[in-house]
Amino acid sequence: MAARDWSLPRVLAHRCGGSLAPENTLAGLAVAAACNCGGVEFDVMLNASGSPLLIHDETLERTTSGRGRVADLSDEAMATLDAGTWFDRRFAGERLPSLESALVRCIALGLAINLEIKPSDGADEATTECVVRTLRRHWCGAVPPLVLSSFSEAALAVAAALAPETPRGLLVSAVPDDWEVRCRRLGAVSLHAGERGLDQAIVAAVRQAGLRMACYTVNDPVRAQTLSKWGVDCVITDRPDIVRAPAPGL
Predict the structure, then answer these.
(1) Active-site hit among 3, 30, 48, 56
(2) Among 8, 11, 13, 14, which one carries the catalytic annotation?
(3) 138: annotated active-site residue
(4) Cα separation of 193 and 236, whole Å?
(5) Is 45 exposed, middle or buried (0-12, 13-18, 19+ CB in 10 A)?
(6) If pLDDT is split at 50, 70 and 90, which confidence band does 3 have?
(7) Among 123, 54, 46, which Cα is nearest to 95's?
(8) Is 14 a catalytic residue?
(9) Cα distances (Å, whole numbers) of residue 26 to 33, 105, 139, 143
(10) What's the pTM?
(11) Dihedral angle at the C-alpha atoms of 93, 54, 216, 238, nearest 10 degrees?
């Protein structure tokens, strides 16, 4: 796919609501919308029942009341977990949302999505297959744009085979020397990189290659504007309340 298939907004809230709500929750989606943020980024992983849920870590301890590996817990066990109290008691009782519920809420709120496929160890193919099935049921024809991204090249390859019409982005921590070769091999339309160490020359090279560029996690409004001037298409932020899209013509 060419870069013209990219249609994400200039600013996305990291893990649904950034640092303003418990991560990867429906409450975070509401916060992003309240900040007039055009879209969100979130992570999707499978549990033991094979259900796609929004969660970043392979283990539950950091962001829920549970313990152990996400891949070892069933739907029934997951439904009992509190995913909000760790952040603030105001969010007590917040649950780990299913991908389906997140998609439905994003459509209702008009939020674009950068969906990161985040497979647990060895589940790259199964996670991607499940994500694609869920998108076909609940996102097909939806107005807000959606891009699939992943650090897993195996996951992106499966996405390319099963859903070639859905734009894909290669996620990297730092931009590697062979970024273009890898993107071309995967049919990725964009490169998503950590903002630390990113410079204007790298951004220019990515854009000259006909690819779009997103970077994370950009929490300084001045830095966000600088990146936009360099040609970064989208910044992912923990502070959707203060990091705004650049003014027209910037």
Answers:
(1) 56
(2) 14
(3) no
(4) 10
(5) buried
(6) very low
(7) 54
(8) yes
(9) 11, 8, 17, 19
(10) 0.96
(11) -10
